[in-house]
Amino acid sequence: MDAIVTNFPRPEDQTDRPSQKEAEDAVRVLLRWAGDDPEREGLLDTPKRVAKAYRELFSGYDLAAEDVLGRTFEEVAGYDDMVLVRDIPFFSHCEHHMVPIIGKAHVAYLPNGRVLGLSKIARVVEIYGRRLQTQETMTAQIAKSIDETLNPRGVAVMIEAEHMCMAMRGIQKQGSTTLTTTFTGAFKTEPTEQVRFMTMIRS
């Protein structure tokens, strides 16, 4: 069964985003709820710092992968074999607990006459990583955005990540890693292409 990918509103369509002051006030409420005093010296500037940090950590909501992937290249001298960018580091946040997900992504595609600039692939990982996520959804979003923009013969995405919601709270199992994959086109229909993808990642 294919993953269902939600399309978020584009930044220009968002009109009800809270103000900076509202965000800072929310942090003050959380500080009080946690049992501390937001008026003590060490915490006076914390709401402003947290709001600024969150703006950076969740900057993926202000960007659209389609815009990043818009430019492609056709002068590839007949190259039509796999293009793989592996070990792309990313930091995301679990949408259930808002704690970090730390991992790396491996992204490959089979060209169909056009190729992407390699930095664009890493940029797409960054865009989807800097949102509240589940790893499964992020894996599918990366594959879908490249598949729809480039129309390649196939896309393969693997993400390996550690979830702090498992390491810091709940079951508290540090060091456990979650792997997710999404395949489209030839990577989905031809097992040999999947094997090649996995082999190149591990080589």
From TrEMBL:
Its EC number is 3.5.4.16. InterPro entries: GTP-CH-I_C/QueF (IPR043133), GTP-CH-I_N (IPR043134), GTP_CycHdrlase_I (IPR001474), GTP_CycHdrlase_I_CS (IPR018234), GTP_CycHdrlase_I_dom (IPR020602). It catalyses: GTP + H2O = 7,8-dihydroneopterin 3'-triphosphate + formate + H(+). Pathway: Cofactor biosynthesis; 7,8-dihydroneopterin triphosphate biosynthesis; 7,8-dihydroneopterin triphosphate from GTP: step 1/1. GO terms for biological process: one-carbon metabolic process; tetrahydrobiopterin biosynthetic process; tetrahydrofolate biosynthetic process. Belongs to the GTP cyclohydrolase I family. Homopolymer. Toroid-shaped homodecamer, composed of two pentamers of five dimers. This is GTP cyclohydrolase 1. It comes from Shinella sumterensis.
